[in-house]
Amino acid sequence: MELGQSELFSPYRFIGVVTGSVAPSVRSVFVGKKSTCSVLCPIDNVILQYNGSNLRPIGSSDPVVGKITAVASSSSCVFAAHNKTISALPFCRNITDSIDVPEDVKMMELIGEQIVAVDTKSEIHVIGTSPDLHPILTIENGENFQISAIIHPSTYLNKIVIGSTTGLLRVVNFKTGKIIHEFEDCFESAVTFLAQTTALDILAIGLESGKILLYNLKLGSVLHMFQHDSRITCITFRDDGEPTMVTADCHGSLAVWDLETRELIGKITDVHSDTINRLHFIPGEPIMISASHDNSLRVWIFDSADSMPRELVRLDGHSLDATNVRFINKNHLLSAGLDGSVRKYDVTSLSMRNNMGKSAIEKTKSKNPSDEGHGVLEIVAGWQREANWNNVFCRHKNTTKITTWQTRNNTSGDFVINHDRFSNNAKFVDANASALCLSSCGNFVFVGYSTGHIDQFNTQSGRLIHSYTHSHKKSQKKSKTPRRAPRQDSNDTPIIPSKITSLTVDQRGQELMSTDENGFVTFWNLSTRQITAKLFKKNSKLGMSSKCPTNSLVAVVSILENGKESVVLIDSVCHKIVREFEKVGKSVNALTFSADGRWLLVADNEAYIRVYDVPTAHMIDIVMLSKPCISMSFNETGEFLATIHKEERAVYVWANKAVFLPYVNIRALDPDFLPTRATSNDGPQVCIDDDEDSIIDEEIRAMRELQIDSTSITFSGLPLSRWANLPDFAKIKERNKAVLSVKKIKQAPFFLSAIPTLEGFDFQSDDLQLDPALSDKLISDKRNMLELESSFTSLLKSTKCEEDLVNAFRTLQSMTLSAIDFQIRSLDLESVSLLLRMLLVVLKSRKQFELVEAYLLVTLKLHRILTRSIITTATLQLI
Predict the structure, then answer these.
(1) Of 81, 682, 739, 766, which has the most beta carbons under 10 Å away?
(2) At 470, is the secondary structure helix, strand, or coil?
(3) Rounded-to-integer distance, Cα 46 and Cα 27, Å
(4) Strand order in 629-634's β-sheet?
(5) Where do the TM regions start and end (predicted)?
(6) In whole angstroms, what is the distance from residue 29 CA to residue 776 CA?
């Protein structure tokens, strides 16, 4: 995720993404006699590295410029193709070398010390890797031969076999650039995959029609054919002595074949929910690694008697786009997606993750491919009842059912919440849940529907507590049998005649606030279950809302008839609108408060996140992203902000600079201000330095030089020890003098006639009489020493313009406290006048105010007689 310049947030990490659409690379690194296997998964512009045995994250590479389109690896280096560039990343960390290619690379093969890369125009580029990346050869294939697969057959020196979309095969010598042979056989279907079998001269060819051919290169004939149900995407072979072939198709199914009997051993359907793009057997072991577009990695072991694999390790994330994120405590968050699953992550660890499973709705949905499913749209969670019963509730797409979950056991709940009206009444067949909230005590969950109904359920049992309809409008007495469910009245007409867009319960648990599409804000007393107040937003309909965690403010999206949107802040205690932010973008996708309630974050559909300061109603920051944010959440301590973006499966975590840095440049921005995306081609730069404190100090120093507003007075930001004690520095020196007088040394060296003094030792004899001429010369020399100018005085006298005066002020500012006191004391009449002029110039700029005040006070105390003749009436008016 690309981030524009932001004063408040810095990228921390992304979580929830295991692998991407680009096929990963598997490499073995030998350490002594042992070998370790690692899986390299390119995701967007980075490469994640996993341990091949347990799929534990090992590390990630530095970001590259552009999206990675292909990756190849050896035991010593990793090569990544991105943005018409091929880069070398030793140890899968930082980029050490790069080379440009004419077009984007779509597939890449590492053969010895040479890279064979195929670009989008089906041109083959041969690139040497030693000692650095350098071009060797470019081979053109013509427009009629579009390369779709590539393989280097074993023992074929400097040869590659390429397959095309028309079903043709060619053998090319990538050292000479010549086409050695083109096979006459045309397979009448596009070649999708080429793999080397355990036998020499024989390749496995996967076709788009679902056929797998065992092809003899020397004879140019098909040895045998296997048939799959759909397009072949991967083929691999066991090399531990068992004649087994495993194939995968575009629907995520695995087929295991016996090469001796040439029969199908078995098939596992829906292993992955999307295309499998990588199958790899670990050399010499019955262990296979599979990767898929559904954002998952799996390790399989072939140890059963029927030669079928069983799953050993699984690492996965959301198979479809993520839709909602919610922090449940300081470091843990929940994310939900269109695949119907809820997952729990630790933002401080890459390996701590839990799959809480899929919802009961998603498990029982129809297998019809046209069924869109019921993905999760909203999560509400509370920690109050986490140890007792269900504390997480999810609202789903196109259904009135609410699913329950437990974060204590990281599992789904035992029941699904749903009102009987939606099952028994045909007129509610198109109804769906449109709003959801949890009470502050954690005992009740409130559900709003597109029909205007509002229902209250018990979180422990899922029992219906109350429906806010006309049939219950006058019932104020509590039921004597609280365990019995309310009677279903025939008059189930909702009080609110339009779609409920949001629900909020105050922190006291005494009042429920609902908003609807007609522009009404309704407040319900939860004790009497009656309407206590109503607000109306004229000519607008209300949308989503967000409750402040520290006070009674609720942010609500208001949509005018012309489509213009704004965000209003409602005080749920006073029942009044207290703020309105009009310029929040064209369409608001998400909004949330900071942990302390001081900031309001609003995300729109143009990939901007605006940050507003609630007390001043000013926009203080705007974050520009590459994709629109659709959900975001702050953790309870305000350290991290988690965001989810459109068409993304990852959860992006941003660090709050205001928490981690001692100084952040917060200033009011114009409401119409929009940042511009950087156009630099230098790419991302990563600074790794052992002395991080010095880097932070430089950033703080640069921030302090900035002036928030030209009409406001700005301080220097220097510590108090640099200027606060300057007016009383003489008193401090006097106070720090020794109380006892210096005593004479009892025994002095016999060869020195020295008398100890405060200045050192006096080696002059008491009876020494100086010559009068010599005495006059000494007095003259001392007078000349007193009349010498200091360096700062000379600098002042050499100034010719205001810029020189500002530079002189910076020089004085950089001195120590005692040096500043000495420099001001040694000024003469002319220099005092220049000093006052220097302070006046700095004062006009409204910067460094406390330093100017301290220096002026010292000058007036030390040179009060001189300043009387210098400061005129006109100068006083300027000051």
Answers:
(1) 81
(2) helix
(3) 17
(4) 9-15, 651-656, 640-645, 629-634
(5) none
(6) 88
Q: State the average pLDDT over residues 162-178.
A: 93
- Burial group, residue 130, by CB count within 10 angstroms (0-12, 13-18, 19+): exposed
* Residues ≥6 apart with Cβ < 8 Å to 418: 400, 401, 402
Q: Is residue 835 part of a domain?
A: yes
Apex 97 CA angle, 129 and 117, nearest 5: 50
Residue with tokens 């098939």: 267
Token digits of residue 216: 């003899």
Say how far apart CA 523 and CA 572 lie, in whole Å: 8
Cβ neighbourhood burial of 199 (10 Å; 0-12, 13-18, 19+): middle
CATH of the domain at 97: 2.130.10.10
- Whether the bond into 727 is cis, omega within 30 of 0: no
469 in a domain, yes or no?
no
Question: Residues 192, 205: contact at Cβ < 8 Å?
Answer: no
- Alpha-helical segments (H) within 357-464: 360-363, 421-424
Residue 650: C-alpha distances to residues 19, 70, 189, 332, 646 (Å) = 11, 21, 36, 15, 10
pLDDT at 189 over 50: yes
Is position 147 within any domain?
Answer: no
Helix axes 849-862, 829-844, angle to 10 degrees: 160
Higher pLDDT, 174 or 700: 174
Q: What is the pLDDT of residue 91?
A: 84
Token pair for 744: 């004479």
User: Is residue 547 within 8 Å of 571, Cβ to Cβ?
Assistant: no
Identify which has the larger pLDDT, 690 or 460. Answer: 460
> In the predicted model, is pLDDT for residue 594 greater than 90?
yes
Instruction: Name the strands in the sheet holding 565-571, side by side, starting at the edge strand that comes first in the sequence.
Output: 540-547, 553-560, 565-571, 576-581
Asked which of 140, 162, 184 is the last residue of a domain, the reply is 140
The DSSP annotation for 590-612 comes to EEEE-TTS-EEEEEETTSEEEEE
> Domain boundary residue among 101, 124, 140?
140
> Beta partners for 126?
116, 137
Lowest mean pLDDT among 480-494, 540-554, 696-710, 765-779: 696-710
Q: How many CB atoms lie within 10 A of CB 221?
A: 11
Alpha helices of 788-862 — where are they, by DSSP H? 791-797, 802-813, 817-825, 829-844, 849-862
Global pTM exceeds 0.85: no
Residue 87 belongs to domain spanning: 19-140
Report CA 266 to chain centroid distance, whole Å: 43
Please give the Cα distance from 308 to 314 (Å, whole number): 17
Closest CA to 826 of 787, 866, 781: 787
Q: Max CA-CA distance within the chain?
A: 127
- The Cα–Cα gap between 52 and 57 comes to 10
Domain count, the chain: 2
